Amino acid sequence: MSTPVLSVRGLTTTFDTRAGTVTAVDGVSFDVGPGEVLGVVGESGSGKTITGFSVLGLIDPPGKIAAGEVLLNGRDLRTLPEAEMHRLRGDRIAMIFQDPMMTLNPVLRIDTQMIETIRAHRDVSRARAREMAAEALALVGIPSPVERLRTYPHEMSGGMRQRVVIAIALMLEPDLIIADEPTTALDVTIQSQILSEMQRLLAQRNTALIWITHDLTVVAGLADRVAVMYAGRIVETGPVDDLLDRPAHPYTQGLIASIPSAVPRGTRLVPIRGMTPSLVNLPPGCAFAPRCPHASNTCRAARPDEQARGHGRALRCFHPLETTP
Fold this sequence. Notes:
Blueprint: E1 6-17, E2 20-32, E3 37-41, H1 48-56, E4 63-72, E5 75-76, H2 82-88, E6 93-96, H3 110-121, H4 126-139, H5 145-148, H6 158-170, E7 176-180, H7 188-205, E8 208-213, H8 216-222, E9 225-230, E10 233-239, H9 240-245, H10 250-257, H11 297-301, E11 307-310, E12 313-315
Parallel strand pairs: 3-8, 3-9, 6-7, 7-8
Antiparallel strand pairs: 1-2, 1-4, 4-5, 9-10, 10-12, 11-12
Helix pairs in contact: 3-4, 4-6, 6-7
């Protein structure tokens, strides 16, 4: 891979609660190169979204980034003053939230919001900013973009609002976009259209993308590489096709076996047994051991370190599954 746009090393994010300290992100490391799509997958509560927020520096008390480096084009974002981070957000690094109304102000027209965003980062006239906003809406497939600029968010469908949010994220051509399940609430037809347009625009601009999701079928068609998270840790990484065809970690295998389209028609699905552990009181060994059919005494006593497997694969497991084709 070429020089990474984003390089995360040993990222650890904690939250102080009445029940104790929760380690929501535990020593996470990964790279994302120019034009690359990294899919981050896992169950709810696995730490996917907090990882994205940590990269952007959006963790507020009682949360804190306790350790690690977040390098964007070689600059450690953790060492930058807040004023500098404010300039980078929306310009060199952008985020697309699951709910577009977390980004769009319901009482302001679309043109007001997009023009303000542009002029906060670019020294252009209001007229030029309006032109840039209309061009961005056209890029994501919104018809009659000039007219759409004059509408309010509530006058748009959910799919149209999400396209506006994607346009806002793309219009200043950032180096990195973090997308937190942005198509989950959309029907499959609109979802497919948005994913196709995202792929086209990212390829045109060589923008890196982290796509956070629980949907492996979306990752299969979008991502270049996949990072599987469980209880705050990345347990397996690899090229998307290789990892999904030949999972080495029992948790990854469990996720794939839970997808209806991954098993023959009429076959009973095999869910992962048990529940995700409390992050306040994790088991002493591998966090997945209580749910794993392959767990041994070693798994219950010690936490596995990450092991490289070749061909871009890595995982944390004492008893990996056979991955030979």
